[in-house]
Give the backbone structure.
Amino acid sequence: MPFEFKSEFERNPTNVPAPVIKTDCEAELDLMTNFLQDNGYVMLYDNYKVIIKERERIAQLEETNNGFEEA
């Protein structure tokens, strides 16, 4: 029975990376991202995210002022 010389990677199967399995949600997200990129809507979506954050910040500021405006 001859010796078998294996690399460290072959000798230690715990270092073998697990196969990447995409879930349905990840596949759908990738499809939507590709749609946005292909149709040029990525910048529009990024601007939309900024607007939403700004609206939330303004609403939070209005709540902390208790309805009083500062001069």
Remarks:
- Helices lie at 8-11, 24-38, 42-64.
- The chain has a mean pLDDT of 82.
